[in-house]
Write a structure and sequence with these properties.
By secondary structure, the chain is mainly α. It has a domain at 2-90. 86% of the residues lie in helices and 0% in strands. It contains five helices and no strands. The chain is elongated.
């Protein structure tokens, strides 16, 4: 009972709002910088090396495009997670992190191992789907 009261008290402080806003701002800056690089990089490569063919800049653009797609997919998944979280009426993620930190060591390790096993299973299934 005491742990629940303590965690609910920490939840009402609003300490997680600043970090979420800061993380969102940094994410937008990184995404905007990568998008700007994607637009300006072909001209910069041709200015630096006039003998570069059409394939040379395209390789770097594909790497940048994959980074952009990764960041967009990550942001979209995070947005979906937050919407599902609110729809299901679950507590805020900061409260769940505080609750996780209050678990005993063997419970935390069990959760870490379970998360690792699920990640490994998903990786193997993705590789199996490709092959």
């Amino acid at each position: 009972m005491e742990t629940t009261m303590r965690l609910s008290h920490l939840d009402s402080s609003g300490a997680g709002d600043f970090t979420e806003k800061k993380f969102s701002r940094v994410g937008y800056l990184v995404f905007g910088g990568l998008l700007l690089l994607w637009l300006l990089l072909p001209g910069a490569i041709r200015q630096f090396d006039p003998a570069s063919g059409g394939v040379d800049p395209a390789i770097w653009l594909l790497i940048l495009l994959s980074l952009l797609a990764f960041f967009m997919l990550t942001a979209w998944c995070w947005w979906l997670l937050r919407r599902f979280w609110e729809t299901l009426g679950l507590p805020r993620i900061e409260l769940m992190v505080l609750h996780f930190k209050s678990l005993e060591l063997w419970q935390q390790l069990g959760f870490y191992w379970l998360s690792f096993a699920l990640l490994l299973l998903v990786s193997v299934m993705c590789l199996a789907a490709i092959c």
